[in-house]
């Protein structure tokens, strides 16, 4: 009997690091595809900050939490190795929500074919959740205009790095916030950001004033933390704040206090939170917007590869430590 590995979520996270006892590693018999089904062997799996929220039992979340005892949720890329489905052939590469598992039997719903010639790392780094999230957030809510100033927190991350590059390609002054000098150097000298702030070592208020002397028009928030209040104070009238993520608070015992709301009235600010499941129906349009930037070489990325399915468990903690250098991907 041939078996494969899957990882189930069996407990909810507590404040602090993600611990191995939240998961159960199981061995199961490799299944066969039934009528109208395909069998997918996953080759690359994405790790995303949103997973922390998916593990938590928040009844007000934008997406139901992963049920205890079920395979942990994640997107990935895999190869169809058996097919009884008219729309999929053996050898097709597909992407979608596959989960923390080496194999998946699927009806095909929610899976899309990968364009020939596009490798798995590019798919997961650009054309999957990071690129879609960046494009929806920036253009759907940020309304960027040439000559404006945008500040992006988590700027060296998979979403923030794409947001900044899109904004730069559209003629904005782009300031990125990251957690170490190497990341700051990367976003400026490799990705073309106009400036960077190391929130751990720089005098944030002074650095912001230096890099954004005309104020801030768009703030793309991925992290929360101390940078938030400093940027908020520099927002221009009719500025837009796009709230994509708050990784600093995801496992905190209590959320950090937010800014005073009086400037929202005085400056007529627009603050928009969003989550990609609301916009999955817009994926073709979003890809249509993003792809020309990629094809013209205006979007660069780097990956941080972890080897083996079980590396995902501790790999999630890299989001809290900032230890990842690029898009986190597990290679199976």
Notes on the protein architecture:
With 332 residues, this protein is an alpha/beta fold. The protein folds into two domains: 3-117 and 302-331, Quinone Oxidoreductase, Chain A, domain 1 (Alpha-Beta Complex), CATH 3.90.180; 129-278 and 287-292, NAD(P)-binding Rossmann-like Domain (Rossmann fold), CATH 3.40.50.720. 28% of the residues lie in helices and 26% in strands. It has helices spanning 50-55, 120-127, 129-142, 158-169, 181-189, 204-211, 227-233, 262-267, 283-295, 311-315, 318-321, and strands spanning 3-9, 23-29, 38-46, 75-83, 93-97, 103-106, 112-113, 149-153, 173-178, 195-198, 216-221, 235-243, 270-273, 303-307, 327-331. The strands form three sheets. Strands 3, 4, 5, 6, 7, 14 and 15 form a seven-stranded mixed sheet that branches. Strands 10-9-8-11-12-13 form a six-stranded parallel sheet, with helices on both faces. A two-stranded antiparallel sheet has the order 1-2. Helix 3 (129-142) crosses helix 9 (283-295). The radius of gyration is 20 Å and the shape is globular. The two termini are 20 Å apart. 42% of the residues are buried. The model has no long low-confidence stretch (mean pLDDT 94).
CATH topology of the largest domain: Rossmann fold
Mean pLDDT: 94
CATH superfamily of the largest domain, by name, is: NAD(P)-binding Rossmann-like Domain
Runs in which pLDDT lies below 50 for 5 or more consecutive residues are: none
- Beta content: 25-35%
């Amino acid at each position: 009997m041939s078996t494969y590995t899957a990882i189930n979520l069996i407990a909810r996270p507590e404040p602090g690091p993600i611990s191995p006892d939240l998961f159960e590693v199981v061995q199961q018999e490799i299944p066969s595809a039934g009528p109208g089904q395909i069998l997918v062997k996953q080759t690359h799996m994405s790790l995303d900050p949103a997973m922390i929220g998916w593990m938590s039992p928040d009844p007000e979340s934008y997406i139901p939490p992963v049920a205890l005892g079920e395979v942990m949720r994640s997107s990935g890329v895999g190869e169809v190795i058996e097919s009884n489905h008219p729309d999929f052939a053996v050898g097709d590469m597909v992407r979608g929500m596959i989960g923390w598992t080496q194999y998946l039997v699927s009806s095909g719903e929610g899976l899309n074919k990968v364009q020939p010639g596009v490798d798995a790392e590019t798919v997961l780094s650009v054309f999957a959740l990071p690129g879609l999230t960046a494009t929806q957030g920036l253009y759907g809510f940020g309304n960027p205009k040439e000559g404006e100033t945008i500040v992006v927190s988590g700027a060296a991350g998979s979403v923030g790095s794409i947001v900044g590059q899109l904004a730069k390609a559209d003629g904005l002054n782009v300031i990125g916030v990251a957690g170490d000098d190497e990341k700051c150097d990367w976003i400026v000298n490799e990705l073309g950001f106009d400036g960077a702030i190391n929130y751990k070592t720089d005098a944030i208020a002074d650095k912001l004033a230096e890099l954004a002397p005309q104020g801030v028009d768009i703030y793309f928030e991925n992290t929360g933390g101390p940078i938030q209040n400093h940027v908020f104070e520099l927002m221009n009238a009719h500025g837009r704040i796009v709230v994509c993520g708050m990784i600093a608070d995801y496992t905190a015992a209590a959320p950090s206090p937010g800014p005073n709301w009086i400037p929202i009235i005085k400056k007529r600010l627009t603050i928009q939170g969003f989550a990609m499941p609301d916009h999955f129906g817009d994926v073709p349009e979003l890809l249509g917007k993003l792809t020309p930037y990629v094809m013209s070489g205006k979007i660069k990325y780097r990956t941080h590869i972890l080897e083996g399915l079980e590396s995902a468990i501790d790999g999630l903690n890299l989001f809290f430590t900032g230890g990842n250098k690029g898009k986190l991907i597990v290679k199976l």
